[in-house]
Amino acid sequence: MVLNKKISGIAKALTAAVVVSGGLGLSAGAMAAYPDHPIRMIVGFSAGGTTDVVARIVAKEISQELGQSVVVDNRPGAGSNIGTEMAARAQPDGYTLYMVAVTSAINQTLYKNIHFNLIKDFAPVALAAKVPNVLVVNPQLPVHSVKELVAYAKAHPGKLNFASSGTGTSIHMAGELFKQSAGIDVLHVPYKGSAPALTDLMGGQVQYMFDNMPSAWPHVQAGKLRALAVTTGDRSKTAPDLPTMQESGFPGFDVSSWFGVLAPKGTPAAVVDKLNAAIEKGLYKSDVQARLKGLGAVTVKTTPAEFGEFIQSEVVNWAKVVKASGVTVD
After folding, report:
1. The pairing of beta strand 226-230 with beta strand 298-299
2. Cα gap 145→244, rounded to integer Å
3. CA 75 to CA 57: how far, in whole Å?
4. What is the pLDDT of residue 6?
5. What pLDDT sits at residue 13?
6. What residues of the chain score a pLDDT lower than 50?
7. Helices 269-283 and 2-33: angle between axes, nearest 10 degrees
8. Reduced to 3 states, what is the DSSP secondary structure of residue 297?
9. 143 and 225 assigned to the same domain
């Protein structure tokens, strides 16, 4: 009886080993074949904004490196939360990616009722780019510097509106920080992305905006908007003559946007590593670098682990800004 039990146990162990071995073999084969059909990249903002622009650049490079099309799927709304939640619920098979922006790190504490955890529900893949925000105004507004904008706002309390790509975005928070620091009475008008906000800014429905440089700068060059300052601590190489907010009388004002790729939690590490390698290789091609530089974007190489650590630090740092601003969203 004892011997039979031992034989039976050995047989079960051998059977389990064969099953595991076979599973590993299939898994390895699947990983080698990845990707064997198109990949979807969700973007939480409308087409035309900076997140969308960067996403399409990254999608094209992944496609070229891995030999499969990458379809950008714009899902705007709720300050990008709709897209973020959709990505978090997707199958962790490497065929759904999310172009995350700094907005999601802000939203983690800005929203009272949020249905995702940026750290726990995603597998970090790679940080794609960082860009400065730029303060732009409608050319009809009679101001040519940050100092003049503040003076005009104080002379016309409650008359100026500033746009953003959505409540809680770095664009919005930069506007709130400016409002508090300058002590001005202005109204925030949120939009579903930078593109519609810029359209109304150029049309005169709103008067100024802190927008990401990649989406705003072409309009500045075309004379449709006037740029007053960049929000980073250092001047932008794209516009070296444009002063910083700190140089314009706001010490400590340092806000930038960043964009990266996430996958749903549980996505195989081999897939994550393959995507990371494709993104890093693609973004550092000379023509891609030239295009990103023209948009004011700077690439930063990261491993998946390094990007994960970066996201954690961003969630913590933006929580402090959100608390100081007093802004919350139900």
Report:
1. unpaired
2. 11
3. 18
4. 41
5. 41
6. 1-26
7. 20
8. coil
9. yes
